[in-house]
Every structure is written in C-alpha cells, then in structure tokens.
TrEMBL record:
Domain of life: Bacteria
Name this protein carries in UniProt: DUF3298 and DUF4163 domain-containing protein
Species of provenance: Chitinophaga rhizophila
Domain spans labelled DUF3298: 277-354
Pfam families, per the entry: DUF3298, PdaC
Residue ranges constituting the Deacetylase PdaC domain according to the UniProt record: 167-259
Length: 361
C-alpha cells in the first residue's frame, strides 16, 4: 500500500474583530497559493463591471473545484479546473454547448486575476481574498492505493482520494465545534487526519476483500480496478449561513461509476442544520412544482408543450431535502436517476426568492 499523503493548510482570514462573524480578532494573511499545496480562498471582485463572489478550493495536486456567483443574482455556478504552467484554468458548468472559463494567475497574496471567456466575448476579472462575515476553513487532502494481487505485474489497483474541509483555528470555538460535528455526522472526531483517512481506508479494505471472490479463470477483468474520489466544496459562506457540498464518486465495476453531491445548510448563529421548511411556508412542496418546471425548461431549452417525461424519469419535479440556499434564492439538487437518466448527471434547479416571495417565512 502506498504511503498516504496528507496536507492540512489553514485558510486565514482578513477580517476585523466582529461579534457578528464569530471570527478571531487576530488578523492574518491569506494562504500563499504559490507555496501552499492545498487551500481555500473566498474571493470577491468583478468580471468586467459585474461583482462576483468565488469560493475556490485547491482540492488535489492538479485540481481546483468550487463555486462562484454574480452578486446581484446569487445563483451558485459550479467551477473546476487545473493549473496549466503559471496559469489556472477554471471552467464553469453552465452551457453544455459553449465553453466558459476563467484563465488567470493566482498571486502570493491569494488574488486571482485574468480573463473570463464565454458568450462569444471576454472580460477581465480581478478577485481578492476577503472573508469578512465568513468563516475560515482548512483543506486536507489524502490519497492511497492498493494492489489487489501484490507481486503480480498485471494486478488491478484500487485507488482512493479524499479532500475535506475543517474549521480553522481562528474560528470561534462554538462555531467550529458545530461545523466539525456536522462534517463528521455527529461523531466525536477532533482529529481531521483520522477523519480524512477513515473513508480512504474503508474503501480499500472493501476492495481487498473482493480479491477473494474475483473470478480470474479467464484472466483479470478490466473492471477489476476500483476507484473512489470524494471532496467537499463551499457553496455559500456568508454569516450566519455556511452551505457545504459533499461529493462522492465510486467505481466498483460495471458499466460506469456512481456519484452524487449532497448539500448541508448550516445556520452558524442558531447552531442548526436548516431544512426547506425552516425557510419556506408549509405549502411550499406543492407550490414549487411549477417553479421547478420553469427552471428545468430554461436550463435544457425544453419547448413549451413538450411533456417533461419525454426527457426525464418523472412527470413533474417535486422539491426534495437536498437543497442549497443563498441570499438570493434556493436550489434543489437531484442525483443521477432521481429525476433524470444517468447521462443528464446531477440536476440542480435554482429558484430566485423574488419569484416566490409569498412562500418565504
């Protein structure tokens, strides 16, 4: 088994002493992306003249992941990318027919500057780290692998990676404890390294057991190599709300792997994990069906009159408990096969608050 590599990097904040944010009064520098292997940056700035906020995570040796949103719209847009030379290329998940991306450089102060391209045009962007009214988070990354048949040059390999977020030392103790308990699903775990390794070790232990039952009479099957990838992202970070995404992918043989993202909305002030009914009035489940239909028709350009079941696995879309929220709206997310075929991937439908004012508490 290859030695696991673990890194814990504190994302420090540039904030003033404030009881509202529950942050430490100790000022600190943002992480230096030119020297720090893994980190979280909460960035604010503009694309052209449009103010945006970006939550960017260096989630692996060659991987950037996160979200950004236009401040006046508030709809989270997923981003992912890689370092390319001295630049960082981050693509966004918006239009399947057109590539939209950020191409720029991260400086030693945590700033991100370059050019955004999309919609047949381009604009300069400049973002700077600023976690005012937000919590700071550490990033931990680990990877490991296991040969199923040690000593066999043709052995299949099991590989697993994991990237987690953890409240930084500068975070108010009560807030940090609340975040930590929810990340660990209530388990009394205070060591982030042990928590990081737990899922990796569990996956590889399961993989090792499969070697006893694998039929190799006609050779080792091509699907005998397994893989797992898990990470966390920040969707929204504006006190008192912290919205986290938990993503996992596993390939354990078969035609394709299985994956999905689940969201957690934390009210850091009330120390409560929010549900849709904490935000919306009791009649929301029925009232949101037409709003969700309007959202999916817009995303997939489904013409009026065409029934949803010609594209989806359901006749109508009902809100579920896998939701996210920002200051401008609420989104409901559906894993593959929940409402659509695997090829459609995970579907997230965002509804602006301005369209459902009567449903807000």
């Amino acid at each position: 088994m290859r030695t696991i590599l673990l890194f814990a990097i504190t994302c420090c904040v540039l904030v003033s002493c404030s009881t509202k944010t529950k942050q430490s009064s100790q000022a600190a520098k943002a992480p230096d992306p030119t020297k720090t292997p893994f980190y979280y940056l909460h960035l604010k700035g503009k694309i052209g003249t449009e103010p945006i906020t970006m939550d960017l995570i260096k989630a692996g040796p060659w991987v950037f992941r996160g979200y950004y949103s236009y401040d006046k719209i508030g709809e989270p847009i997923m981003i992912w990318g890689t370092p390319e030379g001295d630049k960082v290329i981050v693509s966004e998940n918006t239009d399947p027919n057109e590539e939209r991306l950020f191409s720029g450089k991260l400086d030693s102060l945590g700033g991100f500057k370059g050019t955004w391209r999309g919609k047949g045009t381009s604009y300069p962007f400049e973002l700077k780290p600023s976690l005012e009214n937000a919590v700071s988070l550490d990033v931990l990354y680990g990877s490991d692998s296991l040969p199923l048949y040690p000593g066999n040059p043709n052995t299949p390999i099991g590989q697993a990676t994991n990237c987690i977020l953890w409240p930084a030392a500068s975070t108010d103790a009560s807030v940090a404890d609340f975040i930590r308990k929810n990340i660990t699903d209530g388990k009394p775990i205070t060591d982030p390294v042990k928590f990081l390794k737990r899922d990796i070790d569990s996956f590889l232990a399961t993989y090792k057991v499969t070697g006893k039952d694998l039929d190799t009479a006609e050779g080792i099957p091509a699907a005998a190599s397994w893989g797992a990838d898990a990470d966390m992202k920040v969707v929204w970070n504006n006190y008192p709300l912290l919205v986290l995404e938990y993503f996992s992918y596993e390939f354990t043989g078969g035609a394709h792997g299985n994956y999905g993202a689940h969201y957690q909305v934390l009210d850091l002030e009330k120390k409560k994990v929010l549900k849709p009914e904490d935000i919306l009035k009791p009649e929301y489940k029925e009232a949101l069906i037409p709003e969700l239909e309007k959202s999916i028709r817009k995303i997939y350009n489904i013409e009026p009159g065409r029934r949803l079941e010609t594209m989806l696995l359901v006749k109508e879309i009902e809100p579920n408990d896998n939701f996210l929220v920002t200051d401008k709206g609420i989104g409901f997310s559906y894993t593959p096969y929940e409402i659509g075929p695997y090829a459609m991937g995970q579907i997230t439908l965002f509804i602006p608050f301005k369209d459902i004012k009567k449903l807000l508490k």
